[in-house]
Amino acid sequence: MGERRQPLNPARHEYTPDALQACVSALGTLVKAIGGQHETRLVVIGGLVPRLLLDDTRLDPALEQSDHPGTNDVDLCIELDVPRDSDSFYQHLQQVLEEHGFMGAPVPNGDGQSVWRWIRKVGSVTVAIELLTNADSVTTELGGTTFGRLASNEATRAGDEIGALRIRGAHLALANPEIRTLDIDLLDGRGMARVDIRVANLLAFVTLKSFAVKGRTRDKDTFDLIWVLTYWPEGPAAAGAYVRQCPGADHVDVHDAMQLLDEEFSTPAHNGCVRYADFSMGPGIERTMEAHTLRCREAHATIQEFLASWKASDPQLPLLP
Predict the structure, then answer these.
(1) What is d(CA 187, CA 27) in angstroms, rounded to the nearest whole number?
(2) Angle, helices 17-34/88-99, rounded to nearest 10 degrees
(3) For 105-160, how does the pLDDT look when each residue is reduced to its tens digit (9 = 90+)?
(4) Rounded to two decimals, what is the model's pTM?
(5) What is the DSSP pairing of strand 125-134 with strand 73-78?
(6) Number of Cα atoms under 13 Å in the Cβ half of residue 106
(7) Contact 135, 170 (CB under 8 A)
(8) 202, 28 Cβ separation under 8 angstroms
């Protein structure tokens, strides 16, 4: 029997502490095993970023929803274009995945085997590691995502089973990642290890999440975005000013991402706000129309405060009428 396909839009209760712990263990194990110069080519993006970017000391426990639900998979941004003499990286990456029990898996709700999605069981949890890389110029013009096989050693075909999904804005994650040093329980009872994890900075995170909010159906994308901006030190306005001064902030991908945010969260009735409210009202939260409306307004206010600060940081920026 094949892997049970996951829902396209998991609800909040489907993100569990066990799944989060399994994902962190898988991430730490992989990064440690890659080792050396190669580990700099792996940057965490996606649903693990909120917890990595904002450590517990920055959170106010008195604020509602300070607990982030975590993630069910590990999204890793990797370099696609590397020097010809460095293609052993792909062989090494494939070898590490296979040696730790990962195998290529079907894309959820899709057809055929994937060379960019690798899975294994960790206890009762199926952990997926998804490999992503930057979109090429054609993909960027189309505004979508495409599959791109990584370079392999043509003589030995080493690393030929590894691939990456091209996504717009991934270059920002690779350029200036944050580093978090964590003590992580490794897979298969190998003990605890201190591992340096490279994680997308706030600019890259907001940009990539903006494209995700527009381009796919997962409500959690909106929640991740609002959660990070809400709990950023001194709030959404400070986050907007911080992002504006990050290297790469003038890139067209960033500009387009900010425009998408303004469109998706333009009013409390817009889709981004509604999706945030739908996801945030998980188990234990009274689901009334009044409560849903309030959360829609929270999402709208958070994004608009962030964007207003972004704009104010550079009055010449042609953004937001």
Answers:
(1) 9
(2) 140
(3) 876 655 555 778 999 999 999 999 999 988 764 444 434 444 344 444 334 344 45
(4) 0.86
(5) parallel
(6) 11
(7) yes
(8) no
